[in-house]
Amino acid sequence: MAEHEPSIGASDDWYTPASIFDALGLTFDLDPCSPGAGHWVPARNVYTKADDGLHRPWTGLVFMNPPFGGREGHVPWLAKFLEHGNGIAIVRAYTSSDWFHRVVVPKAETILFPRGKTQFVPSPDLEAELQRKAAAQGKVWRNAPGHGVVLIGMGPVASEALRKSGLGFYVVARQPQMEAPRHD
Ligand SMILES: C[S@@+](CC[C@H](N)C(=O)[O-])C[C@H]1O[C@@H](n2cnc3c(N)ncnc32)[C@H](O)[C@@H]1O
Questions:
Q1: Cβ-based neighbour number of residue 4 at 10 Å
Q2: d(C-alpha 94, C-alpha 72), whole Å
Q3: What is the DSSP secondary-structure string of 63-129?
Q4: In a mutational test of the pocket of ligand 1, which residue from 4, 49, 80, 92 has the highest number of ligand atoms less than 8 Å from its CB?
Q5: 48 to each of 10, 41, 70, 77, how far by Cα in Å?
Q6: 71 lines ligand 1 (CB under 6 A)
Q7: Torsion angle of C-alpha atoms 40, 44, 47, 50, degrees rounded to 10
Q8: Per-residue pLDDT for 5 more than 50?
Q9: What are this entry's molecular-function GO terms (predicted)?
Q10: What is the largest CA-CA distance in the chain?
Q11: Cα-based angle 48, 117, 172 (whole degrees, multiple of 5)
C-alpha cells in the first residue's frame, strides 16, 4: 500500500525531504510551522503549533511548508509568506486552482518546478498510524512520492538559491526585490 499524498484535512505531519535543503544550501532564520526545534529544516528559530506561527511576527529568511488545516487552510500561510517577501515556500503544484491564481500569481517573484514528484516524510507517529491502518487491512504501508510541488522564492537570497539549486525548472515571475528584504 503506497500512501504519500495527504488528503485534505489529513495530518499536518508530512515533512519536507532533507534533500531539498541540501540542494538549497541555505540556513533560514525562521521555520514558522515546525514540529519543533531539532527538526531537520535548517532554521535558527521555529514556531510550533503551540506557538501558532501564523499569528506571530516573522523575521528574516523564512522556510515555509504550511500545515494543511482543511480545504484551503494553507492559503493564509501563503498570503503571509508572500507579504513577508523573504524566503522559500513549498506547496503542492495545483497550478489550476483558484488559490494559486488568486494568491500566488500576483505576488510570487520566482517559482521552481522540481523534476519528479516530491516524497514528503511522515512523522514517526504518523508513520506508525499508517502502518497500523494498513496492517488492519492485511497490507504493508510504504512511502512513495506524491504530487508535484512548487517552490516559491521571495527576495534575492531565496531566488538565487532556487536558481542555483539544480532542482528543476526555475522561472522568474517578476523581478526579485534587489533592495534589502522587507521585515528584517
Ligand atoms: C507540513 S509540516 C512542515 C514541517 C516542517 N516545516 C517541514 O518543512 O518539514 C507542518 C507543520 O506545522 C505544524 N503546525 C500546525 N499548525 C501550526 C501553527 N498554527 N503554528 C505553527 N506550526 C503549526 C505542524 O505540527 C507540522 O509540524
A1: 17
A2: 12
A3: EE-----STTTTHHHHHHHHHH-SEEEEEE--TTSHHIIIIITTT-SEEEEESS----EE-HHHHHH
A4: 49
A5: 18, 13, 18, 14
A6: no
A7: 80
A8: no
A9: DNA binding; site-specific DNA-methyltransferase (adenine-specific) activity
A10: 58
A11: 80
Q: Tell me what percent of the residues of the chain surpass a pLDDT of 70.
A: 90
Residue 48: which of 130, 123, 103, 111 has the closest Cα? 123
In terms of phi and psi (left: phi > 0; alpha: psi -120 to 50; beta: otherwise), the region of 18 is alpha
Q: Which residue has the cell 500512501?
A: 3
Mean pLDDT estimate for the chain: 90
Q: Which amino acid is located at 131 in the chain?
A: Q
Look-up of cell digits 528584504: 181
Which residue's CA is the closest to the ligand 1 atom numbered 10? 67
How does pLDDT run across 23-65, given as a tens digit for each residue? Answer: 999 999 999 999 999 999 999 999 999 999 999 999 999 999 9
How confident is the model over 128-168, as pLDDT tens digits? 999 999 999 999 999 987 778 999 999 999 999 999 999 99
